[in-house]
């Protein structure tokens, strides 16, 4: 299995040599510019109580308040709802958001939004809620669009969003997705049994209110899964293909993708998020409130990082891992802290499980970056030579595996019921995820994915 994973030596060596030999100011082979874009972010204890004033300042007369049934019972929802009512705006609540949304659940929210003619949207919840509000806003604003018009190709048509949306204020209640900072919305596409989504800078929330009080009620299992998502956002954006190697160069600035590849500004946010995760993640899972606040901020930092650089293989591979959980009869997983009547592999867990296999493979593409990330997470990198990508990749993979073990997360797909016979379906579900797989620092083929999934079945 290890030989198969290392069966791309020429390709990896060429990628590493290309990076090492590129002199400052040399003409790039791909894009020659990158952009920095993010939602406005407000951070502070109790900041949720300001959302009504924000909506009023935006000229709101009628607000769609989007949430899910569980969050509706929390103090975070009560604070947002009370604030909006106190500001004198009419409020309609949509609380039918599904954790890990589907195209069907998204379209329920779209139908609600189209009936209401809302001028401001407020989302209170985790990434599923915020993503659902983004999609509802999109299709209620552009009423004549078919649902697949803006969905990423090849599942959808991948058309550019034609114009501005209504204001959206996002109030996250988990410390993980960073959805309050990004222009991306993800869902399960039922007909293809694959994860897909919509990506456009125009989907970004107008304002993200990061109130650390809202994350205190998270069950332990949700803290674990959401924290792993933050970790992978930071690691993947840090190790993504550099923006100058992303092809093709856009014909117009408006066509430059939101996920551009690693770049000097995203690097700052991603590395700082990684430092915060290293010092606070495990303590936050244990109930330390100060560490929990640090993780809420780390989620936003990582969101700004990956919202501009993008993610790559762990996220691309995660989509069929979580999607097929609902489709294959032998996959059974009911995670701690999540309610519902269906099997579920939380997004953060489905991303983390293949990550060690990925970093073992990508280490040689940027040895220094893998080595630095491993060191931040606690690895002794003193014996790892700066150019030894194999060693650096193993060190980073081992740090991720060690963290998962301490948190009680299964180390390998086999623990969820996946077998070698499922690898072709997992590969088939990853190949359409071009929006993220093209940001991997090496060429992604079915053979490469098959080897990665086999390595991720059971780590030794």
Overview of the molecule:
With 460 residues, the protein is of the alpha/beta class. The protein contains 17 helices and eight strands. Strands 1-8-5-4-2-3 form a six-stranded parallel sheet, with helices on both faces. It has a two-stranded antiparallel ribbon with strand order 6-7. Strand 4, helix 6 (127-141) and strand 5 form a beta-alpha-beta unit. The longest helix is centred in the middle third of the chain and has 22 residues, at 264-285. The termini are close together. The model is unreliable at 1-28 (pLDDT under 50).
Short overview:
This protein is of the alpha/beta class and 460 residues long. The protein has helices spanning 2-5, 9-21, 51-57, 75-86, 103-116, 127-141, 220-239, 264-285, 289-309, 313-324, 347-352, 355-362, 367-376, 389-407, 423-430, 434-437, 446-457; strands at residues 40-43, 62-66, 90-94, 120-125, 168-172, 184-189, 194-199, 207-210.
SSE sequence, one letter per element: HHEHEHEHEHEEEEHHHHHHHHHHH
Shape: globular
Strand order of the largest sheet: 1-8-5-4-2-3
Terminus-to-terminus distance: 11 Å
Q: Number of helical segments? A: 17
Q: What percent of the residues sit in helical stretches (DSSP H or I)?
A: 40-55%
